[in-house]
Amino acid sequence: MPRDAVLLARVRAGDDRALSAVYDQHADLVFGLARRVTRDEQLARDITQEVFTYLWELPDRVDLNRGSLRAYLAVVTHRRAVDEIRRSERRARTEAAAPPVEVEDGPETGVVDAAAREWCRNRLAAGLAQLPAEQRAAVELAYFDGLTYQQVARALGIPEGTAKSRLRLAMTKLRTLLGDEMRTAI
Which of 24, 77, 79, 147 has the fewest CB atoms found within 10 Å of its own CB? Predict the structure, then answer.
């Protein structure tokens, strides 16, 4: 516990070597727990990154009077992993509930599809225009330029956790703005 207090104080002071020491000490626990809950190695890596980014950005949330740093990281990891599972289950339910797209054979099909695609492009552009500039930039880099979270973060000069947050917020807002309209158009 005293070692936790010293490391946490250094993290609060902005010492990235202290964060590195915390990572070295607890990354196996965080990754293992995330992988066990999600059963997805890549998702577990992302959650591990998020947990340590969260600790770096909000170290004051840790209360060593309530438990060890290890216990805190385990709780945050478990919550993030469960949230990810719930999100993916919600996505799967939404996709399963969406009516299948029927495409008819015939010469007019290409024209209708092209018109629908153009309409969707225009609506998407209008939706993107409604996003705050920092969210729009993150979406454009990730979805139009094909960059990963890490690459988006580097390109914008922000922490990876912030890049992920901006993308999540942007996608939530776009779903709200375009959800029903886009589904019916497609």
Answer: 24
